[in-house]
Design brief:
With about 150 residues, the protein is of the alpha+beta class. It is built from 5 helices and 2 strands. It is globular, with a radius of gyration of 17 Å.
């Protein structure tokens, strides 16, 4: 887990809060600059948050979470109310409809790297259209930073 590297909307809010609050903005597993993980279960995300809080010696906190981070914030509060003083939820759904097998589990089998952008897109198979914009390739839109493909591009 990387801390504060690219937790998208949080840094904007963090700047506004820094005067009065201690702000810690971790990337969640597989997000931002964090490495890809073998497990994306709710238990895994919550274990990461708990480990961070334990490492920092924080017993009770206010959690600000955006999207998936908001879901994980209220899940942590539900399971461990003794650790959460309050929640600030930014654009997180209250219900995901993920009862039963995770419908997004197929993503775990998609390639994470390739020697070239074209090979990566080809390896994505039917999922490729979701990664390529109709107005141009995702690589063109990403600009010089490009895609995060450890094996190549």
């Amino acid at each position: 887990m990387q801390v504060g590297r690219s937790a998208a909307p949080v840094p904007r809010h963090a700047d506004e809060l820094r005067g009065e609050w201690r702000v810690i903005a971790p990337d969640q597993r597989g997000q931002g600059e964090s490495e890809r993980a073998a497990d994306y279960s709710r238990e895994g995300y919550l274990a990461d948050i708990e480990a961070l809080l334990d490492h920092l010696g924080l017993e009770r906190v206010v959690l600000l979470g955006h999207s998936l981070g908001g879901i994980n914030a209220y899940q942590l509060a539900t399971r461990h109310p003794e650790r959460v003083e309050a929640i600030v939820d930014i654009e997180a759904q209250v219900e995901l409809g993920l009862e039963g097998p995770n419908p997004l589990a197929f993503l775990l089998d998609l390639p994470y790297g390739a020697p070239s952008w074209d090979e990566l897109i080809a390896a994505l198979g039917p999922a490729a259209p979701y990664f390529v914009d109709r107005r141009g390739s995702t690589a063109e839109r990403l600009g010089p930073r490009g895609a995060r493909c450890p094996g190549g591009v």
